[in-house]
Design goal:
By secondary structure, the protein is of the alpha+beta class. 31% of the residues lie in helices and 38% in strands. It has helices spanning 56-69, 110-119, 134-147, 151-158, 162-167; strands at 5-8, 11-25, 28-40, 45-53, 72-73, 86-90, 93-99, 106-107, 124-130. The longest helix has 14 residues, at 56-69.
């Protein structure tokens, strides 16, 4: 598992996985590469992309460009953790993300750690079960994060004030 950091216009890019693809043709083997990349602004925006090319740098560049185009917003609590515990599943990849107190750090493995770092999460506990396939783990993590509701969103649904929702939080 390779990780690569690159700072540019406030967006952090992390290379999560590179895979070599072999196509057998009449004259022999043709090699290609696929790259899985996560990008984020470390303040609640994140994008994930997968791209293929004949050379590794081209695959990474394509994936970065695609990920920048599909940025989504994830609400963060105090800019450091998630609002509540969430569960996500994609294929055989299952993930449980739990909010953590200040100073805990990112307790997560591999691809989930990369997602948390580019998203700007500083305190979280994650447990991944099932597969260790980075594609499925990242998709499961994104599904879990998208299930999350902020107190502002819950307050609008219930027609209450944000302070009423937050004070009941345990």
């Amino acid at each position: 598992m390779d990780f690569k950091d690159k700072k540019d216009d406030g967006i952090l890019e992390k290379l999560v996985h590179i895979n070599r693809i072999t196509k057998v043709v009449k004259g022999g083997r043709r090699f290609g590469f696929s790259a899985l990349v996560v990008v984020g602004n470390q303040a609640g925006k994140i994008g994930v992309a997968h791209a293929k090319a004949k050379q590794v740098p081209d695959a990474i560049k394509k994936a970065n460009e695609t990920a920048r185009r599909v940025l989504i917003h994830v609400p963060l609590r105090e800019g450091r953790t998630i609002h509540h515990d969430v569960y996500g599943k994609d294929g055989a990849g299952k993930i449980i993300l739990r909010s953590a107190p200040k100073g805990t750090g990112i307790i997560a493995g591999g691809p989930v750690r990369a997602v948390c770092e580019v998203l700007g999460i500083k305190d979280i506990v994650a447990k991944s079960m099932g597969t260790s396939n980075p594609h499925n783990m990242i998709r499961a993590t994104m599904k879990a994060l998208s299930k999350q509701n902020s107190p502002k969103h819950i307050a609008t649904i219930r027609n209450k004030k944000i302070s009423d929702v937050i004070e009941k939080r345990g």
